[in-house]
């Protein structure tokens, strides 16, 4: 008997998290793409979403049914009803700017401003305020905060390390330069802050797993509800960036990074 379809975005997220690990490869691609691009469901066709996930439309339709929907139209209706009221009025102005300056640097700027705005608005929906408070408390009482973020996540990790240094918060950035593995520097009263986004850096996941086995707390900044970091009992802060073409900015991620850094610095100063 097919499960009843989710009737809210929160229920959709829970269902997606429940089934993601057990899905075969193609359907897991659907889950990962949907989790990272929920803002597109309301305005895209099944063919467009299937193409983005790298699967056939028939596979995407099967994925919808596994979540409990009769098909893609029912899933899309849920997102349209949930998001329509929140769509910003000034998106039309950016659309006009793009059309007037088509192909120019100004048009490119408008595109990135638009996706950055959407990413920042989504941040308020994806970050659990209670999880944020728990993360700040854990980091604030750590003797040393160890930070790891590689590839696209490296600018975020290095920015947090810079902010902590300016606020006299003891922190160590694990960069992997020269192939050095400094995970043995972590002590029982330390905390690991891990930053990774799809496609997830294997080195970051391995470090989180190794540190978790030692009982050292982990705070994770990651993107989707099917992120592998959620398997390791980490305090998870979710942030997802909307992309333009093949490029994703770090607008929302850096906003969360400075929020976390300042909150920890403030808490420690008390």
Automatic annotation (TrEMBL):
<dbReference type="InterPro" id="IPR036388">
    <property type="entry name" value="WH-like_DNA-bd_sf"/>
</dbReference>
<dbReference type="InterPro" id="IPR035472">
    <property type="entry name" value="RpiR-like_SIS"/>
</dbReference>
<feature type="domain" description="HTH rpiR-type">
    <location>
        <begin position="10"/>
        <end position="86"/>
    </location>
</feature>
<protein>
    <submittedName>
        <fullName>MurR/RpiR family transcriptional regulator</fullName>
    </submittedName>
</protein>
<dbReference type="Pfam" id="PF01418">
    <property type="entry name" value="HTH_6"/>
</dbReference>
<dbReference type="InterPro" id="IPR001347">
    <property type="entry name" value="SIS_dom"/>
</dbReference>
<keyword id="KW-0805">Transcription regulation</keyword>
<dbReference type="Pfam" id="PF01380">
    <property type="entry name" value="SIS"/>
</dbReference>
<keyword id="KW-0238">DNA-binding</keyword>
<dbReference type="InterPro" id="IPR047640">
    <property type="entry name" value="RpiR-like"/>
</dbReference>
<keyword id="KW-0804">Transcription</keyword>
<dbReference type="InterPro" id="IPR009057">
    <property type="entry name" value="Homeodomain-like_sf"/>
</dbReference>
<dbReference type="InterPro" id="IPR046348">
    <property type="entry name" value="SIS_dom_sf"/>
</dbReference>
<feature type="domain" description="SIS">
    <location>
        <begin position="135"/>
        <end position="270"/>
    </location>
</feature>
<dbReference type="InterPro" id="IPR000281">
    <property type="entry name" value="HTH_RpiR"/>
</dbReference>
């Amino acid at each position: 008997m097919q499960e009843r379809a989710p009737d809210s975005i929160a229920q959709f997220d829970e269902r997606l998290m429940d089934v993601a690990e057990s899905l075969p490869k193609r359907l897991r691609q659907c889950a990962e793409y949907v989790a990272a691009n929920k803002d597109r469901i309301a305005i895209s066709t099944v063919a467009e979403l299937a193409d983005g996930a790298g699967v056939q439309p028939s596979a995407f339709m099967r994925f919808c049914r596994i979540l409990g929907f009769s098909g893609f139209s029912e899933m899309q209706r849920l997102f349209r009803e949930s998001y329509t009221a929140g769509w910003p009025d000034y998106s039309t102005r950016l659309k006009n700017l793009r059309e007037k300056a088509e192909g120019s640097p100004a048009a490119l700027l408008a595109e990135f401003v638009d996706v950055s705005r959407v990413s920042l608005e989504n941040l308020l929906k994806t970050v659990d305020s209670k999880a944020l408070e728990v993360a700040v408390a854990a980091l604030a009482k750590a003797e040393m905060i160890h930070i790891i973020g590689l590839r696209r996540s490296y600018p975020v990790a290095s920015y947090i390390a810079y902010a902590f240094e300016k606020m006299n918060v003891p922190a160590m950035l694990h960069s992997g330069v020269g192939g050095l593995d400094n995970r043995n520097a972590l002590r029982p009263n330390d905390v690991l802050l891990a930053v990774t986004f799809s496609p997830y850096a294997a080195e970051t996941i391995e470090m989180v797993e190794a540190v978790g086995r030692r009982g050292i707390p982990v705070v994770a900044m990651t993107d989707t509800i099917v992120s592998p970091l959620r398997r390791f009992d980490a305090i998870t802060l979710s942030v997802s960036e909307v992309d333009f073409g093949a490029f994703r900015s770090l607008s929302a991620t850096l906003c969360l990074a400075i929020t976390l850094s300042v909150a920890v610095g403030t808490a420690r100063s008390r």
